[in-house]
Write a structure and sequence with these properties.
This protein has 351 residues and is an alpha/beta fold. It has 13 helices and nine strands. It has a single domain (21-308, 330-349), classed as Metal-dependent hydrolases (TIM Barrel), CATH 3.20.20.140. Strands 1, 2, 3, 4, 5 and 6 form a six-stranded parallel beta sheet that branches. α1 (8-18) crosses α12 (310-319). The N and C termini lie far apart (59 Å).
Length: 351
């Protein structure tokens, strides 16, 4: 009896089924239909944007309570992540772990004590700013490029203390670099690409990539088309997305790159276009350079429109010559390492 070597697709399928997979950012409404997509994609944990970016503390608390109810009602598919062990448990039980995250620190307002309260509710990731300035620092579209405020340093210190992951994806350059330096724990850019390949204000410079890696952090490569193009007049392809991964690995190192898809399957067209309409919306700086190809239906890299495609990422990485060990790191291992260090420190400090 003779045996044949497995095909690339077969190797990828086996590897994907055997490894831990984490998506460092999704904003898709958490529904049973989406939970099915997450499981079909083999995703064991996802950082979910739980509250609106404009929410104050009271509004965010209601959104967080709503997610608790959703998890309770769908406990056969999902569970809440408070520590790294919950991520491993989700994988063992065939579920997806939901990590409560905020894409703006606005719910903290000007009261650092809200960090403790949000941690108790279950929040484990807070992005310090969205695109604009807040009490903590400057977002990526602010022209002043101000740094981390004194209040922002207190917020970072308390996030370190309670075990909450500092996310810098939408932060401006100076605020990002200041926060990397100020944090006693590794920080992340959960969903961003390389500014050297795509000049979006949402992407990260080589200086940031170097600083992030030196402090043990991770950047998650994102599917969102306005952050992945090489030619603004053409919708980015999957090859262009993987060029970002290659570049991030080259600049930051294999231990500091992951996936943060930024998927928003099922989100409202009206809400999305109010923020990111072609050359308009609230943030024209992010989309005004794009050609006529860009609209709501083409907002993601071609071929990367759904969580179901995550096994394709594994196959593509294999085809580009990445080792199985490297792929395990990119697809979840690197983010798990940082989450374990940060989340579990918080469990110790609050016990």
């Amino acid at each position: 009896m003779t045996t044949t070597d497995p095909t690339l697709a077969e190797r990828a399928q086996a590897l994907h089924a055997d490894m831990l997979v984490i998506d460092a950012l999704q904003a898709a409404p958490m529904t049973p239909a989406h939970f099915d997509r997450l499981q079909r994609g083999g995703i064991h944990a996802v950082n979910y944007t739980t509250a609106n970016i404009t929410s104050d503390f009271a509004a965010a608390a209601l959104d967080l309570a709503k997610l608790h109810k959703t998890i309770e009602a769908n406990s056969d598919q999902v569970l809440l992540v408070r520590t790294s062990q919950d991520i491993l448990r989700a994988r063992e039980e065939g579920k997806t772990g939901l990590i409560m995250g905020l894409q703006n620190a606005k719910p903290l307002m000007d009261n650092v004590d809200y960090v403790r309260i949000l941690h108790l509710i279950g929040v484990r990731v807070i992005q310090l700013t969205y695109n604009e300035r807040n009490f903590i620092g400057d977002g990526c579209v602010e022209q002043t490029n101000g740094g981390l405020s004194r209040y922002g340093r207190r917020v970072v210190a308390d996030m370190n203390r309670f075990g909450m992951l500092v996310d810098l994806s939408h932060c401006g350059e100076r605020t990002t670099l200041d926060a990397i330096e100020a944090s006693a724990a590794p920080v992340v850019a959960s969903h961003a690409n390389a500014k050297s390949l795509c000049p979006s204000p949402r992407n990260k410079s080589d200086q940031v990539l170097k600083a992030l890696a030196e402090r043990g952090g991770v950047i998650g490569a994102a599917f969102w088309a306005p952050m992945a193009y090489s030619d603004p007049n053409k919708r980015p392809t999957m090859d262009e997305f993987f060029a970002h991964i290659d570049y991030l690995v080259e600049r930051a190192g294999i231990d500091h790159v992951g996936i943060g898809s930024d998927l928003g399957e099922g989100e409202s067209r009206e809400y999305y276009e109010a923020m990111f309409a072609h050359g308009g919306g609230i943030y024209p700086e992010v989309t005004q350079a794009l050609g006529d190809w860009y609209d709501f239906d083409h907002r993601m890299v071609e071929g990367l429109e759904t969580a179901v495609v995550f096994p394709t990422l594994t196959e593509k990485l294999l085809s580009r010559g990445y080792t199985e060990e490297d792929i395990r790191k990119i697809m979840g291992g690197n983010f798990f390492r940082v989450m374990a260090e940060v989340f579990d420190q918080g469990a110790t400090s609050t016990s």
